[in-house]
Inverse folding.
């Protein structure tokens, strides 16, 4: 076991190598399982989460999974390093089904800094959803540890290095959040994932872990995406990162694991992972390949509605963290529901913008017929505003409900606009138009450099009449003052009138005034 | 109308400004594009609103723009500062020209 662990960390060094790993992952998975069992004792040292039960491994915790998995697998790069980043994600995720370890490795490869010493390759991957479980020092109880906050779990699971990385990743994630939706995985990846790259793999990995990583809204998007990607077979991993590879390996997994949860670690893994990940990965498989959405990766839930999904994937770039856990559980459900709501995927994401990649990306809001947002994401958002803020449970529930209703209404209207456009594909412009006109919300970075026509704010008739009256009264006043002093009182009164009825009165007064003026002069 | 000076592209300008505000010297192209889009959108929106206000009072003037940013104190102060400096420069140039004229007449 020990031997296995050390070797894996070294090979993990180059992130691109991790990309290669995904393909071999499916195969090694069975191997890993075997290995994991023997290695658990040894692996604990590195990743602290030797998955005793590869199959049940609900936590995609890529990083957490100790190297035991890695050594057996050809993907040395992948799980072992957190920095391995995204590419590793896909792999770990797949393997994750067998073991969690790989997720960690998939974590932001960008953060290659993550101490390779971690030996626990999985650590590097995005421990997004899984880390919580893995982070626990005792692999046997993946679930209990997972419940712990991701950040904490990361530290533990990764064996300490992750903790440092996490902190690094977090700040990085924030910065990246803008650019790369995936960056959110930062939590997952202590190494400060190069958000963009990592986004893809991260998201996939995130899903399983969907845990707290989605702290920042932007990051959340990533996470959701990352996980989705991973699970979804990196369909959209189109993101600049090389993570793409994880997608392919994921696919085989996805297809097989569509029903299962492997991609979606138990809900507790990653509340942040954006529930849609489970849905997404299903859809991602089919869609991802097609869409190669640069943006966040939100894999459309329905495989059937590939077209829609394609759009969604693009939009995902910002998927909110809402997808977290509830989605995972609903993963199987989501598939069914995904078909119902391909449009619901669009989630408007103000933060992450992947201009280059998804012009038509519609913010995807993952929703699998159940809860879209998890309380964890609400917590993360609140923490961004004020770390010491506390919310009542009822308040959280209400916020989640409001968010879900918002997403529902947006997607519904967006679909009707798309239908009005005589198209059967929901695109970013539908959502953008709706938000701009009805919510007065502008999301830069999604319009694809289309000409923006300016529309004056809609004014009512009554307001126009009042304005006309005021104008006339002003003119009358000026005329009155200029001509003579006698009409001052009348002018004053005219100025005060602002009602439509006064319009007539003002006109009459004007007439009288002029008449009197004429008489006066004569 | 032909633009006489090509100069740095708008993206380069935005990039330099971002650096001035604390960003990396070489930010991601997507970030630059996004920031540029935000800036263009903001300026466009401001111009449209100023037009709406200006049309009520006649024609567009500087006052309309100042009115629109009245809520943003740093921006407003910076704008008034720049405008006053512009006035000062104008007067300085005027005085300079007058001096030359005087010298010419004296001679």
């Amino acid at each position: 076991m020990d031997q296995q662990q050390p070797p894996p960390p070294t090979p993990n060094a180059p992130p691109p190598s991790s990309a290669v790993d995904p393909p071999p992952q499916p195969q090694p998975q069975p191997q890993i399982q075997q290995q994991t069992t023997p290695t658990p004792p040894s692996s604990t040292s590195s990743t602290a989460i030797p998955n005793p039960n590869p199959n049940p491994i609900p936590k995609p915790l890529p990083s957490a999974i100790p190297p035991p998995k890695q050594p057996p697998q050809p993907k040395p790069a992948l799980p072992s390093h957190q920095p391995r980043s995204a590419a590793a994600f896909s792999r770990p995720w797949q393997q994750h089904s067998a073991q969690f370890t790989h997720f960690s490795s998939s974590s932001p490869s960008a953060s290659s800094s993550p101490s390779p010493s971690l030996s626990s390759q999985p650590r590097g991957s995005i421990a997004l959803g899984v880390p919580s479980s893995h982070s626990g020092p005792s692999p046997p109880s993946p679930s209990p540890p997972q419940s712990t906050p991701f950040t904490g779990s990361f530290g533990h699971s990764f064996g300490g290095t992750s903790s440092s990385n996490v902190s690094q990743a977090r700040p990085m994630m924030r910065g990246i959040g803008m650019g790369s939706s995936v960056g959110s995985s930062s939590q997952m990846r202590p190494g400060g994932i190069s958000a963009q790259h990592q986004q893809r793999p991260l998201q996939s990995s995130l899903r399983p872990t969907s845990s707290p990583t989605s702290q920042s809204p932007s990051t959340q998007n990533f996470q959701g995406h990352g996980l989705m990607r991973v699970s979804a077979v990196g369909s959209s991993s189109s993101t600049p990162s090389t993570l793409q590879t994880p997608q392919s390996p994921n696919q085989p997994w996805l297809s097989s694991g569509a029903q299962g949860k492997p991609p979606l670690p138990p809900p507790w893994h990653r509340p942040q992972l954006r529930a849609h990940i489970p849905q997404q990965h299903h859809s991602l498989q089919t869609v991802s390949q097609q869409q190669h959405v640069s943006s966040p990766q939100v894999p459309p839930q329905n495989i059937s509605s590939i077209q829609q999904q394609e759009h969604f994937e693009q939009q995902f770039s910002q998927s909110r963290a809402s997808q977290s856990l509830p989605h995972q559980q609903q993963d199987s459900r989501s598939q069914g529901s995904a078909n119902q709501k391909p449009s619901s995927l669009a989630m408007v994401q103000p933060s992450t913008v992947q201009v280059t990649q998804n012009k038509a990306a519609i913010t995807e809001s993952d929703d699998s017929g159940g809860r879209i947002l998890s309380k964890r994401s609400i917590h993360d958002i609140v923490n961004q505003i004020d770390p010491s803020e506390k919310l009542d449970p009822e308040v959280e529930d209400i916020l989640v409900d409001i968010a879900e209703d918002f997403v529902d209404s947006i997607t519904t209207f967006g679909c009707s606009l798309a239908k009005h456009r005589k198209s059967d594909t929901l695109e970013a412009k539908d959502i953008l138009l709706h938000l701009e006109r009805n919510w007065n919300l502008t999301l830069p970075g999604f319009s694809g450099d289309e000409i923006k026509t300016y529309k004056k704010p809609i004014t009512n008739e009554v307001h126009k009449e009042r304005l006309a009256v005021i104008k006339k009264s002003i003119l009358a006043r000026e005329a009155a003052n200029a001509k003579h002093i006698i009409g001052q009182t009348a002018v004053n009164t005219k100025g005060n009138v602002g009602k439509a009825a006064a319009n007539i009165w003002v006109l009459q007064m004007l007439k009288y005034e002029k008449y009197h003026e004429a008489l006066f002069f004569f | 109308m032909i633009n006489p000076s090509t100069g740095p592209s708008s993206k380069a300008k935005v990039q330099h400004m971002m650096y001035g505000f604390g960003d990396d010297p070489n930010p991601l192209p997507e970030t630059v594009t996004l920031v540029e889009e935000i800036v263009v959108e903001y300026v466009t929106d401001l111009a449209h609103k100023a037009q709406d206000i200006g049309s009520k009072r006649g024609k567009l003037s500087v006052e309309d723009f100042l009115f629109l940013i009245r809520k943003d104190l740093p921006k407003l102060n910076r704008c008034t500062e720049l405008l006053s400096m512009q006035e000062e420069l104008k007067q300085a140039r005027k005085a300079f020209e007058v001096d030359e004229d005087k010298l010419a007449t004296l001679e």
Observations:
- Chain B has a mean pLDDT of 87.
- Helices of chain B lie at 10-20, 29-57, 62-68, 73-106.
